[in-house]
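Inverse folding, one chain.
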């Protein structure tokens, strides 16, 4: 008799195995008749893992359970496969490896039970992705389930395809998704719309397949379908300019969206969609984003949505965060479309109210948004200047940084004194990580808007006194150049610097400037001829005591000691009673362990011993310095819309440049013509040179005269350096504040804005300030801006504020361009941009021909 039948007859059944008596012995059946014990449930597993007191104990529990699950998988146990996969997914979410369950997920998907399919699809979304070939095995199962008679099974298939479908799967199953998008079942339509978004992202060429299905989506009353439909339309508009134009013109999408948004605002209380008293804020935000895309650079669409945007901005409740989210999207939409000026002021006032909110996140968002709009709506943002300045005192460092950047963007010639007072106070009390950026911003603002040279010098000295260790490397030479060119301020400056470093050598930049000035103007310090403030009585020995203290101070770096030693040497020609003391100090440092200091001392000793007759001439006062720019002045000549650059000389050259050098310079903006460069400075040349001057313009004539008879360029009497000879009166004309700014370049997340000002002393000089911003998620590094103009102009580029453009529009690079236009011709410019982004070197050319007439007339 078979042992199994005999066991049933005896009725002995223990622990799912069979044990029975056979004669006088206990009989155990073969292993093929034994079954594994039932695995523990997911809830029990979670409870057990939570009892673990250490990480090692938890790992031990997980490893034990994984071993049991693997054994169950090998046994092909269909009964508990769903339970085991669910436990495996929980372990995966805890961070433990669960890849061995991938094929089990596919088996569950192929099952006919809904509970199995649900866990199988969830496992596929968590454990599989398009990089693994295993996921292709489920394509046929998904296709079958998309055509299933039960909507919930269809919904599972749509969710999985929309989550992890590869491009191959999307191509194979796009037809089924498009079919479900047209169904009358709202549950399936909303899931199909989201799945269509994923298909478009993976295979953009399939976008047109879904175009017919989008026609009736916005007529649906179900908010879930409306929401997903707006997401789908947004994706299509963002990815295809043709689709964007189609929805603007043919589908008349803007009126439909305006109608839906108006119904949401005017509708009464609906408990199904109400969030903090506002009807479906999620749908409102999505519609506002789509309106922003449709209205960008389109007058008709912008005009159609102006009224509804004003209605949303005025009727939305601001006491709850939900209302603030809608208002923020409204502000972004107003600023991005071609909206009316009154509407833009309303948007900026909303941001101003955000600054008064107690929530730090809302204040940060407001500051970031104002920073983006300050160049286009400067006057409207200026009204909130006091609130912005108050944010400098905020305890949150991110808010403090945004407020600092926005404060510098608000500085102009009218408020320079007040804003600098607040920013200097901020510099005194801010954290060390802010000091470098704040000092750099103050330097740039003071250089651009200083009302007087004395104020400029005082401001820079205040910065060096407060944050001398944090300033940029060029701060010292820039201040020295400013002091040198302010001849009437020499006595006042050297006296202020002497008092500033007396007994305190901690700020090395300040000590370097003071050492240079004392060496240069020490005779004025000793004579006490200062008229600007009460003079101090200083002897020659006291001055030398200060410089010798700098030389032996532990805080002095090598560069500072070099400044001090050179200053002592210069004083040998300015002082009369202390020359022997100076010789002794210089000779001591001839054996210094600092090689740089030793070399200076040896050379100075040689001056005293061998070339003493030349010493007064070699150490005489420095002449007025000219500020050298890193990007040299350039010009552009144009030929049928193509531009060719040429470099302007800062001094009139004796003759024509060599052809090879000129051709190298032509590569500046990518020109491929090998025509030699003709300098614009006046020079003697034969009459036949008119043919060479056939200005590389071809048929394009910028002078108004026939191209066949070009008018000779007039002799320009202005000095080549554009601001040479300017007096100390204010540099810019306040009337020029009415010149509108322009966007010169906007591509790949990089945006270049131009703002304009006119010189008071020379109406032919236009000062253009560029501001480069970066809206991508990564910084742009090694940024270089180059510009060129037609050869009837002269152009000069000053140094940029930085070479890194921060991501997310969190900061800007500023650079000043000065253009001399003596003939008042229409301004044209070609720009070249080079930078590194996402590990790649980027380069682009662009022409700027839309300069406002006020900037050149």
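Residues assigned per position:
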């Amino acid at each position: 008799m078979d042992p199994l039948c005999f066991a049933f007859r005896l009725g002995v059944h223990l622990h799912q195995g069979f044990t029975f008596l056979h004669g006088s012995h206990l009989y155990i059946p073969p292993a093929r008749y034994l079954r594994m014990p039932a695995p523990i449930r997911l809830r029990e597993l979670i409870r057990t893992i939570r009892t673990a007191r250490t990480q090692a104990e938890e790992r031990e529990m997980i490893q034990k359970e994984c071993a049991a699950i693997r054994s169950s998988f090998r046994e092909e146990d269909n009964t508990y496969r769903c339970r085991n996969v669910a436990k495996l997914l929980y372990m995966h979410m805890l961070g433990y490896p669960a890849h061995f369950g991938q094929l089990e997920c596919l088996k569950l998907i192929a099952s006919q039970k809904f509970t199995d399919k649900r866990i199988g699809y969830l496992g596929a979304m968590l454990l599989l992705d398009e990089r693994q070939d295993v996921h292709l095995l489920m394509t046929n199962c998904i296709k079958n389930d998309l055509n299933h008679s039960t909507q919930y099974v269809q919904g599972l298939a749509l969710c999985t395809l929309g989550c992890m479908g590869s491009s191959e799967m999307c191509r194979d199953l796009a037809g089924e998704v498009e079919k479900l998008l047209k169904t009358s079942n709202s549950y399936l339509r909303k899931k199909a719309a989201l799945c269509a978004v994923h298909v478009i992202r993976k295979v953009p060429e399939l976008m047109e397949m879904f175009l017919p299905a989008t026609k009736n989506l916005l007529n649906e009353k179900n908010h879930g379908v409306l929401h997903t439909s707006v997401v789908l339309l947004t994706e299509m508009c963002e990815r295809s300019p043709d689709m964007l134009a189609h929805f603007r013109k043919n589908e008349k999408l803007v009126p439909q969206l305006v109608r839906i948004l108006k119904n949401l605002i005017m509708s009464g209380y609906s408990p199904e969609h109400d969030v903090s008293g506002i009807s479906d804020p999620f749908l409102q935000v999505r519609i506002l984003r789509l309106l922003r895309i449709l209205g960008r650079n389109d007058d008709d669409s912008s005009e159609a949505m102006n009224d509804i945007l004003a209605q949303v901005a005025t009727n939305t409740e601001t006491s709850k965060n939900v209302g603030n989210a809608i208002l923020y999207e409204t502000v972004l939409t107003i600023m991005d479309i071609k909206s009316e000026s009154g509407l833009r002021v309303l948007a900026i006032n909303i941001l101003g109210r955000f600054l008064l909110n107690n929530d730090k996140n809302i204040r940060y968002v407001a500051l970031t948004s104002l920073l983006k709009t300050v160049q286009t709506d400067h006057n409207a943002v200026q009204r909130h200047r006091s609130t912005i300045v108050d944010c400098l005192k905020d305890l949150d460092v991110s808010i403090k940084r945004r407020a600092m950047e926005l404060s510098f963007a608000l500085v102009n010639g009218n408020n320079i004194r007040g804003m600098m007072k607040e920013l200097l106070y901020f510099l005194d009390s801010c954290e060390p990580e802010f000091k470098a950026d704040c000092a750099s911003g103050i330097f740039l603002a003071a250089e651009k808007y200083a009302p007087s040279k004395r104020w400029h010098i005082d401001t820079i000295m205040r910065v060096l006194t407060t944050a001398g260790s944090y300033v940029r490397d060029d701060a010292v030479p820039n201040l020295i150049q400013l002091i040198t060119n302010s001849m009437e301020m020499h006595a006042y400056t050297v006296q202020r610097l002497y008092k500033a470093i007396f007994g305190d050598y901690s700020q090395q930049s300040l000590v370097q400037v003071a050492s240079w000035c004392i060496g240069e103007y020490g005779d004025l310090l000793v004579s006490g001829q200062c008229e600007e403030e009460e003079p101090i009585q200083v002897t020659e020995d006291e001055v030398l005591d200060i410089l010798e203290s700098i030389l032996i101070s532990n805080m002095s770096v090598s560069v500072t000691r070099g400044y001090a030693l050179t200053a002592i040497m210069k004083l040998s020609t300015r002082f009369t009673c202390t020359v022997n003391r100076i010789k002794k100090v210089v000779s001591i440092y001839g054996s210094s362990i600092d090689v740089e200091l030793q070399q200076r001392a040896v050379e100075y000793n040689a001056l005293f011993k061998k070339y003493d007759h030349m010493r007064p001439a070699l150490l005489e006062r420095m002449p007025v310095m000219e500020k050298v720019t890193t990007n040299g002045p350039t010009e552009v000549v144009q030929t049928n819309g193509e531009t060719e650059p040429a470099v302007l000389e800062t001094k009139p050259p004796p003759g024509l440049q060599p052809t090879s050098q000129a051709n190298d310079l032509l590569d500046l903006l990518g020109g491929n013509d090998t025509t030699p460069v003709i300098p614009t400075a006046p020079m003697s040349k034969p009459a036949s040179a008119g043919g060479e001057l056939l200005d590389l313009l071809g048929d394009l004539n910028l002078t108004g005269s026939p191209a066949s008879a070009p008018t000779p360029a007039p002799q320009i009497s202005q000095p080549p350096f554009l601001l040479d000879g300017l007096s100390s009166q204010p540099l810019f004309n306040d009337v020029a504040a009415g010149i509108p700014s322009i966007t010169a370049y906007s591509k790949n997340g990089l945006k270049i804005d131009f703002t304009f000002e006119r010189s008071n002393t020379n109406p032919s000089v236009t000062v253009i300030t560029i501001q480069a911003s970066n809206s991508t998620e990564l910084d742009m590094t090694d940024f270089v801006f180059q510009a060129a103009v037609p050869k009837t102009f002269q152009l000069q580029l000053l140094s940029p504020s930085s070479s890194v453009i921060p991501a997310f529009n969190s900061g800007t690079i500023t650079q000043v361009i000065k253009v001399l236009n003596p003939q008042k011709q229409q301004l044209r410019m070609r720009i070249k941009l080079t930078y590194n982004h996402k590990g790649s070197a980027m380069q682009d050319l662009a022409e700027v021909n839309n300069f406002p007439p006020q900037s050149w007339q």
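The chain is about 50% helix and 10% strand. Residues 473-619 form one domain.
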